[in-house]
Amino acid sequence: MHNENKKPxxxxxxxxxxxxxxxxxxxxxxxxxxxVPTIVLPPELGQSWPFRMEEISKYNEKGxxxxxxxxxxxxxxxxxxxxxxxxxxxxxxxxxSTDTIEPEKFIAHACxxxxxxxxxxxxxxxxxxxxxxxxxxxxGKIPPRSWLLMxxxxxxxxxxxxxxxxxxxxxxxxxxxxxxxPWLIDERDVIGFGCEDVGTDAGQASNFKTPMxxxxxxxxxxxxxxPALTNLDKLPAQGTxxxxxxxxxxxxxxxxxxxxxxxxx
Amino acid sequence: MTTxxxxxKRKDPTKRTRIPSLPPGKRSREAHGLTAMAAVGRFALQVCxxxxxxxxxxxxxxxxxxxxxxxxxxxxxxxxxxxxxKLQHSNDTYFRDRIPWRLGIVIADAGPSIVxxxxxxxxxxxxxxxxxxxxxxxxxxxxxxxxxxxxxxxxDVQLREMAFNPKDRRVLIVDGKTELGLRIAENMxxxxxxxxxxxxxxxxxxxxxxxxxxxxxxxxxxxxDVTDTESVKELASMIGDKVEILVNNxxxxxxxxxxxxxxxxxxxxxxxxxYHGLMRLAAFFGPIMKLRSADGPHGASAWLNVLSAYAxxxxxxxxxxxxxxxxxxxxxxxxxxxxxxxxxxxxxxFTGPIEDEWQQIAPPPKLIPDTVAKRIxxxxxxxxxxxxxxxxxxxxxxxxxxxxKEIERTIKL
Lengths: 265, 413
Description:
The structure holds two protein chains of two kinds.
Chain A: H1 9-20, E1 23-27, E2 52-60, E3 63-72, E4 80-82, E5 107-114, H2 116-121, E6 126-127, H3 129-139, E7 146-151, H4 160-164, E8 166-167, E9 170-171, E10 175-176, H5 180-188, E11 192-195, H6 213-220, E12 224-226, E13 240-243, E14 254-256, E15 260-264
Parallel strand pairs in A: 5-7, 6-10, 7-11, 11-12
Antiparallel strand pairs in A: 1-15, 2-3, 4-14, 5-13, 8-9, 13-15
Chain B: H1 32-39, E1 44-48, E2 54-55, E3 70-74, E4 78-87, H2 93-96, E5 101-108, E6 113-118, E7 127-134, E8 140-146, H3 157-162, E9 170-173, H4 179-190, E10 195-200, H5 208-215, E11 219-223, H6 229-239, E12 245-248, H7 264-291, E13 302-308, H8 319-340, E14 345-351, H9 369-382, E15 386-389, H10 391-410
Helix pairs in contact in B: 4-5, 4-9, 6-7, 7-8
């Protein structure tokens, strides 16, 4: 029940701070257009659609007063949210799809770990427990129910070829070490893992002892993924709040998502 | 000797582009029997069932015995050139733009006297060989050339109007990431194409075939994704006015049936690449090619779609693929009609199973891509409209013509 006499001071302060610029809103989302590269899977498997848009009308005979489009894409095209139902390990968990995840989970604190130098030297770089502990020494312990975002500046790659970085052994993109994932869940109670490249797992992750650990182990424990982020270079190591609601698709495994980051100046 | 083609010159940008016109277009229903024969490169005329007289021009009843059972049969295409003339004047816009134009009367070995378009090297009283060719209006005409092929006869001006030798022409190959795309490119270069433009989608996906195309001379690779409207529009705006022959070899084949394999995603991709892709190419390359169909010796001339013979009859092992090919075929017929109005011919090549990774377990006989490519080039050089490639495709066409129900029952054994 609302108390009509009590003003929502915290919320009003938040909105005022945003208007004043004391709290900045940073867009961590890649623009959805036909050039967004889609994840490459073996051709005999089902394929995820690229983003395509077809005009319905543009102030013309198809619709004199209107401009609008139909679009198509996969649930995992562009900057997107991975729900636990996306992976076989999370298929039976409660509240595991985009329409059933509790909405409060879509607003959370995020820690940003800078791996730019390492990723530039080694595209197969894996973030380890030691790396994170070392980061914590400088920036503090990861608070519970935080996102761990791995910054690599991968979103700044200039061409789709460089972004996907494929050779005849598959993709070479950075990601989390398979031992990091259970540690993040058990020792730090993270809400999920985010990164800048096309998937939360490293490009070579299907060859790990636990294949695709970020998907298998995160989703298996009801946590989320947030790949293809941008602008992580604008965020502090600690203190960012990110807003990540996927589309409310019935039994959705994910969807393109507008990720907004709030930072205090 | 035939006047050799002049070396291609760049177009003078200050000169106006010649507007396309068409030769006279109306033909009777019987006359379109010639068109059907010309489309597949046969020299066939009506033969009376009763008295065996060979008829020309096409008619409803025998000119000899008035019997009405006339059947199209392959006949001897040889003859003797009785008389010849050079047209110096015409009231018809198409021929006015192309005079002088040689015509002659051939006494065909098969019997009739035939008014034919004459190649440059024909000499009166000498023997000639005749072909059924399709003119710019889409109708069959008879062309004659000397019995023994002469030097550079492929450069003959009339032949360049009715056939599409890649020699000195600029060609666009839509998909350079398949082996067939590579072999078409190689064979185009070998046939003397002036420029070969090759399309490539999904730049992050490597292709050994595209890498080899990159090493060919007179070849350039462009970004082209037929599933992406903007991509097709963009390339057409860049090179649309340079394309003389467009080869649409878009290809996406996955094996599978219908009732026991429900896969809308794959069917969607097949339709996007074969059907909607053709729509996009037509919308953005069609108009500019039509505008340039009379643009001198290096104007736009032909559009060729590489289709499967299963466009003609569904193969249940390739259910949605066959259906997407049928959709493309239907659309190509509209394309043919619309492009013909602008003087551009639409050709379809129908192939049987090809020896490639996606048809790996299809039983032989299968065609190797190089063979398909060579037959495509030959079909273009001959000016055929329906190029039936390989034993499987030929058999499918023959059996459909004979009894479509029979092949429907037996195609999947």
